[in-house]
């Protein structure tokens, strides 16, 4: 099937992700960022689109009705908003889209069945994008929590100190290792980070850290997590390293 997609600049990443998924399903997608060019190609392109995908954020929906405009252009290709906020309120995105097609378009039964197949592929693509969004949100939540409970062991800025401040600086350096390790594990949440990579992370010039140093840092992080209220983050020892998981 041949898609025409109209997208806004702020949702370009999502659009390109959906295009890659649809291309992988054997579809062809033409991307537009300008409304006038989008309309022109619908009217004049010698190979008309089979389906239209439109960015919900592109229009002011109080003033603009996409379906009315397409009808005035005698466009028979169904159009849906691929990021319609109403999708979050329905138990089945496919059925929601299909109901819109039935409401705004008249098509033979065999063509409606073909649209159902398209909607399955689109639903798959949107679902994969939602996984990306959810993972990024989880990452943000973890990082916010990380900054909260790791305040007490965040390394201080390097500075020249006198004899009376040396002990304070040594403590600061000792605290840097668990801070860096925990940050690395959160950035790779639910993935194994190898022991070798963690050792490289905390290595100081001319001094290679030992496995014991790494184990001590991990213990510090686990103790901090244990003392944190409502902590549902755990660090698990794996075959080749460690993994941070959120229950």
Care to describe what's here?
Helix 6 crosses helix 8. This protein is an alpha/beta fold and 247 residues long. It is elongated, with a radius of gyration of 27 Å. It starts with a strand and ends with a strand. It contains eight helices and seven strands.
Question: Which key phrases capture this entry?
Answer:
247 residues; alpha/beta; 8 helices; 12% strand
Question: How is this structure best summarized?
Answer:
The chain has 247 residues and is an alpha/beta fold. Helices cover 52% and strands 12% of the residues. Strand 3 (51-54), helix 3 (66-72) and strand 4 form a beta-alpha-beta unit.
Q: What's the assembly state of these chains?
A: single chain
Give me the secondary-structure category: alpha/beta
The coarse overall form would be elongated
Counted beta strands: 7
The main sheet comes to:
4 strands, parallel
Average pLDDT figure: 80
Question: SSE order in H/E notation?
Answer: EHEHEHEHHHEHHEE
Radius of gyration of CA atoms, rounded to a whole number: 27 Å
Helix content: 40-55%
How many angstroms does the end-to-end distance come to? 42 Å
Determine the strand fraction and express it as a percent band: 5-15%
Summed up, the helix count is 8
Stretches where pLDDT is under 50 for at least 5 consecutive residues are: 152-174
Q: Widest sheet: strand order? A: 2-1-3-4
